[in-house]
Design goal:
heterodimer; A: 85 residues; mainly alpha; Non-ribosomal Peptide Synthetase Peptidyl Carrier Protein, Chain A; globular; B: 710 residues; alpha/beta; Peroxisomal Thiolase, Chain A, domain 1; eleven-stranded mixed beta sheet; ten-stranded mixed beta sheet; 24 helices; 25 strands
């Protein structure tokens, strides 16, 4: 498990107020949007804002967003590849 | 059928990005040009400015921009009318927020400068302008607000509650809506192009329209409001039902209420915001009701989306269509989206029109449709004779002391229940996942509705929701503006924006209770619960689909905002919040408790005499009335006490008076808790059989709720 994935789990729990989920329970390979956690389009937009603010990575294309938000690992991958460093 | 209850459009005021007045609006629409242009009403930190619809050359009225727009439109509508309307009903979502945003940015901490923040101040200033001493009412149902305001006026006029009403909608551009819709990625960077294949969203706009309506037929009526249909998607806080279920329900209700068939509609003014989802859902809804739709178009490609103003602006444009035999184009649409399977008018057309259906579909799934027709072509159906009685099925309150039981135990000991209860206690009965995005205000509201349903012992929830709030979602509004400012306007929170909308709480109640009927959020400062009750009394009928409702009001205390906005809260005033909810039904049930809103007027020199007359006179009052719960907001202490003294003296009543704010603390929705206190007293042995309790609201307005047993 890498640091970014762990960090993202904590950030998502925080910004989406997933108070009944612990980072350990957060499955990074599970379906992120429309899955068990009840994450929907508004949450995705909140994550988009966070990713741009905290990692400098812009996600403003619907097709890309669909891939990026398929799971937390794919989000982490995308940030890793596109981060300005 | 009686033509007495036909509701005519007597005068119209309209201000939009297209210009001032009906003639300028018509000329602009005939040109089929978009007035959408880069924002310049206020400066932004991160260029380029997005395209918006803005009003040019608004006269400086020293009031916030929303108020200025509303008053200018009201003056136009009242031109030539020599007497004031009986009531003013304004749909608005922004109130004085643009001014508030500027003051906050300048770190101004002088509460006096925030006195026009509240939504209710728009209606109050309009009422002052047109010298209306009746009711100044505010509805805030997001993008359908203006339509709901006109619909409410229609119902009040049809029921004979008023003869003249000035109703409409208004919103000004502000940071909250400009950045809020942008954060939801709902703004088309090229300007709104409703129903176009390549559309990418809406253009936030501003404007105002006011309609002077009357059951007295003027010499030259500009149209007749036939009916209104309301519904709630009860689906999602910010996205329409994908099949347009709520929208089609509202259209069908409007047709049913007008007692006409779909074929009788000559033109549909679509909500058509230009967002992919709205236009797709609305198309499906239209096709479900109109297999062969009449000519139709959305004008939002020309005006932008004026939010609360849009429905009123479009009602005014419907009157132009009827008067001039002209229908506007769907400006901005080049290539109609084949997926929508609708063919909006690509060019304006000269076409004699007898009836217009105008759609407004808002956030929170709050849908409203109006049918406007040539005068006297149709008669409004006589409203069925119905019970005036609203029967109480359940109750709940939340105060600083806790939920209903803890609060009423304190009250029974005549101990204060005021305070700010912790979020955990508020949320203890609410599903964690479903409320995770909701902050204090919405959770109080959801907790109240849930508890009132449980208290009723019924296994079903009501169909309708009528909710009042003085200040709405203060936490979300504060957090949104704070994050916006902290990030140099780069990172506003979409979740906070959705939550900040005034009607978000009532929309959440609808989702949780599958309440697909009328869903109206009112705002009336310290009289917000009374306004919600008035709306309920106006819309609840004996039809089984629309005869029951949650009627509630709530407010949250906010350490930064409450002392700035609420004139009854001084910096040293201990904060208090909470609310109350009644589950009510429009049906007589012998033996059950019932209530009536018997009086609601602005303060005038004669107001107490009128209150006594409305309550049945001195003798009736002395015979029935056993207790008074009096609500005097701290900011109105002298005025309110003088009114109460005058009432007691003139009525000759010598009965116990409880000053309920001594128990609830100071907050706008305290009267909702007082309503629950009254029910508690009625249910206890303190009130003898046949006795009634009056809950009086005093100060700027004088209101009276009467609780009794049937």
């Amino acid at each position: 498990m890498d640091n970014l994935t762990e960090e993202l789990k904590k950030r998502l729990i925080e910004i989406l107020n997933l108070t009944d989920v612990t980072p350990e329970e957060f499955d990074e390979n599970a379906q992120l949007v429309g899955g068990e956690l009840g994450i929907d389009s508004i949450d995705v937009l909140e994550i988009v804002v966070m990713v741009e603010k905290d990692y400098g990575v812009v996600i403003n294309n619907k097709e890309i967003a669909e891939k990026v938000f398929s799971s937390l690992s794919s989000l982490a991958d995308y940030i890793r590849k596109n981060s300005p460093k | 059928m009686s033509s007495k209850k036909n509701v005519y459009i007597v005068g119209i005021g309209i201000i939009s990005p297209l210009g001032y007045g009906l003639d300028a609006t018509e000329q602009a629409l005939r040109k089929n040009e978009s007035a959408i242009a880069p924002l310049h009403v206020f400066a932004i930190q991160q260029p380029p400015p997005l395209p918006v619809g803005q009003v040019q050359n608004l006269p400086d009225l020293t009031l916030p921009r929303t108020h200025g727009l509303a008053i200018t439109a009201a003056r136009q509508a009242m031109e030539g009318c020599t007497h004031p309307p009986d009531a003013v009903i304004i749909g608005s979502t922004t109130g004085g927020i643009l001014t508030t945003e500027e003051l906050l940015a300048a770190q101004d901490r002088d509460a006096h400068n925030y006195r026009y923040h509240g939504l209710t101040t728009v209606a109050e200033e309009v009422a002052r302008e047109v010298q209306c001493s009746g009711q100044a009412l505010t509805v805030s149902t997001a993008c359908s607000s203006g339509t709901v305001a006109i619909g409410m006026a229609l119902k009040m006029l049809q029921s004979g509650k008023a003869e003249w009403i000035l109703a409409g909608g208004v919103d000004s551009l502000c940071h909250l809506t400009y950045f809020g819709f942008h954060s939801l990625q709902l703004v088309d960077p090229r300007g709104s192009r409703p129903f176009d294949t390549n559309r990418q969203g809406m253009s936030v706009a501003e404007g105002a329209a006011m309609l002077l309506l009357s059951t007295t037929k003027p010499q030259k009526p500009l149209g007749q409001i036939l009916s209104c249909g309301l519904s709630c998607d009860a689906y999602h806080p910010a996205s329409p039902h994908p099949e347009g279920k709520g929208a089609s329900m509202a259209m069908q209700k409007a047709l049913d209420n007008a007692a006409i068939k779909a074929e009788a509609i000559g033109y549909i003014n679509l909500h058509g915001t230009g967002t992919p989802e709205n236009d797709r859902a609305e198309s499906k809804a239209v096709r479900s009701i109109f297999p062969q739709p009449p000519p139709l178009s959305s004008i939002k490609g020309a005006t932008g989306h004026g939010l609360a103003a849009s429905g009123a602006i479009e009602a005014a444009i419907a009157a132009i269509c009827l008067q001039k035999g002209f229908v506007p184009a769907n400006t901005g649409c080049r290539q109609p989206d084949p997926e929508c399977q609708l063919t909006p008018l690509l060019q304006p057309a000269d076409l004699p029109i007898a009836t217009v259906l105008s759609n407004s579909l808002g956030f929170g799934g709050n849908n409203a449709c109006l049918i406007i027709a040539q005068p006297d072509l149709f008669s409004s159906p006589d409203p069925a004779g119905q019970s005036r009685c609203l029967t109480l099925l359940g109750k709940a309150c939340i105060t600083g002391a806790g939920h209903t039981q803890q609060s009423m135990e304190r009250f029974a000991q005549r101990e204060p229940m005021a305070g700010v209860i912790d979020l955990e206690t508020i949320s203890e009965q609410l599903p964690v996942r479903k409320v995770r995005r909701l902050k204090r205000f919405s959770r109080i509201a959801l907790g109240l509705a849930d508890a009132a349903r449980k208290d009723s012992g019924l296994d079903h929830s009501p169909h309708c929701v009528f909710m009042g709030s003085g200040w709405g979602s203060l936490s979300e509004t504060y957090d949104f503006l704070d994050k916006l400012q902290q990030s140099q306007e780069q990172f506003p929170s979409p979740i906070d924006f959705v939550g900040s909308v005034h009607n978000s709480a009532a929309g959440q109640i609808a989702i949780m209770h599958e309440a697909t009927g009328a869903n109206i959020t009112s705002s009336g400062g310290d009289y917000s619960f009374e306004q919600a009750l008035l709306a309920a009394d106006t819309f609840l009928d004996s039809d089984a689909r629309s005869n029951s409702a949650f009627v509630l009001a709530a407010d949250e205390a906010h350490s930064q905002f409450s002392p700035l906005f609420d004139p009854s809260i001084e910096p040293a005033t201990p904060l208090a919040d909470g609310g109350g909810c009644l589950y009510l039904c429009r049906q007589a049930m012998p033996g059950k408790l019932s209530l009536q809103l018997t009086f609601f007027r602005k303060k005038t020199t004669q107001v107490i005499d009128k209150l006594i007359t409305a309550s049945g006179g001195q003798e009736t009052l002395q015979r029935n009335c056993r207790m008074i719960l009096a609500g005097i907001p701290a900011a109105e202490a002298q005025e309110g006490q003088a009114q109460l003294d005058s009432f007691l003296e003139k009525s000759g009543l010598t009965i116990p008076v409880i000053h309920y704010r001594e128990f609830t603390g100071e907050f706008a929705s305290a009267s909702a808790v007082a309503a629950v206190m009254a029910v508690h007293l009625m249910e206890s042995s303190e009130i003898p059989a046949g006795g009634k309790i009056l809950v009086l609201g005093l100060g700027e307005n004088v209101t009276c709720m009467e609780f009794g047993r049937q």
